[in-house]
Amino acid sequence: MVKKGFTRLGILFLYLTSLLPFWFLYLISDVLFVIIYHIVHYRRAVVQQNLANAFPEKTIEERQDIERKYYHYLADLIVETVKMITVSEKQIQKRVVATNAQLVHEYFAKGKSIIAVAGHYCNWEMAALNFNFVTDNRFMIVYKPLNNEIFNDFFIQIRSRFGGQPIAMKQTMRKMVEYRKELTVSVLVGDQTPGVNEVNYFTTFLNQPTAVFLGIEKISKTIDAAVVFYDMKRVKRGYYTYTLVPLTETPKQTAEHELTEMHVQYLEGMIRKEPQYWLWSHRRWKFKPEDKHK
After folding, report:
1. Which residues pair with 33 in a beta bridge?
2. ∠172-133-15 over CA atoms, to 5°?
3. Tell me: the pLDDT tens digits for 156-176?
4. Do the Cβ atoms of 270 and 194 come closer than 8 Å?
5. CB 240 within 8 A of CB 80
């Protein structure tokens, strides 16, 4: 009970903080950067190891520059995520812009549902909120549930504020099949980390063997959906664009693992262009291929 009480107090604090204007939240972000980077050293060892493995060709100074820029952006991402609790529709449409929203309607005109693949890159959650205004059709956001039930329910409320339908990862296939007669858009994050017992496939991502889910490939083939990638860019502080890049509209014609490789490699290309906007503090490489057989 005490733990739940503190959790609810934390949520109340976040709600009140989200009422602050963006300009003030970015002042908080500047202070937060100093705390997490210089004082607490939040997961700096993880970030440094991830960067060293991903970019062995870069100098230490170059990787340190990426690291510092990443923590600056991470602080911004934190306050932007808090702002999503109460952000208005007008602000979302002003700050996040889809460059080719017409592609959604072109696929619908062909009778194709859409699977939009995102990465933990830029503010992927804010882009998902914006996508609600691209179409009136059913819009589903696949998420990995949090261990804390109260916070999990809280984030479900945020993701569904403008009509999106959050779907827990393990329910994805069932829900997709349930709605297969409708024209829908579904957002899935392609760089989630599977558990060691969930791994069926490894690929090379950012210079190292990486376990990946095959769900995007399996679901798109099951419901014959067009697959696009969220190519997201940060225009300036608090402002983004995203472009829907077609990967395939005939997934059943792709070879085994071909579509998985397509979305993994597309994300890697984005990261290599502007690496500071990917989630480097995430423990993406928890195990190696040999761990699967232990």
Report:
1. none
2. 80
3. 888 888 888 989 888 888 888
4. no
5. no
Q: Angle 2-18/60-83 helices, nearest 10 degrees?
A: 90
pLDDT in tens, 183-212: 999 999 999 888 777 788 999 999 999 999
Number of domains into which the chain is organized? 1
Report CA torsion sign: 13, 16, 22, 28.
negative
Residues 92/129, Cβ–Cβ less than 8 Å:
yes
Beta-sheet pairing, 202-205 with 139-143: unpaired
Nearest of 181, 135, 187 to residue 162 by alpha carbon: 135
Residue with the bigger pLDDT between 5 and 254: it is 254
Q: How far apart are CA 109 and CA 198, in angstroms?
A: 36
Q: Is the pLDDT of residue 265 over 90?
A: yes
> For residues 220 and 216, what is the distance between their CA atoms, to the nearest angstrom?
6
Task: Tell me what pLDDT residue 219 has.
Answer: 93
Give the ranges where the chain is alpha helix by DSSP (H). Answer: 2-18, 22-33, 44-54, 60-83, 89-95, 102-109, 124-131, 149-159, 172-178, 215-223, 258-273
For tokens 């998902």, the residue is 128
pLDDT exceeds 60 at position 293:
no
pTM comes to 0.92
**What pLDDT, in 10s, does the model give residues 242-257?**
999 999 999 999 999 9
Q: Which domain holds residue 29?
A: 2-293
- The CATH number of the domain holding residue 91 is 3.40.1130
DSSP per-residue letters across 69-103: HHHHHHHHHHHHHHHTTT--HHHHHHHEEETTTHH
User: Do β-strands 139-143 and 114-118 pair in parallel, antiparallel, or remain unpaired?
Assistant: unpaired
Instruction: Give the pLDDT mean for 82-101.
Output: 95
Count of Cβ atoms closer than 10 Å to residue 41 Cβ: 12
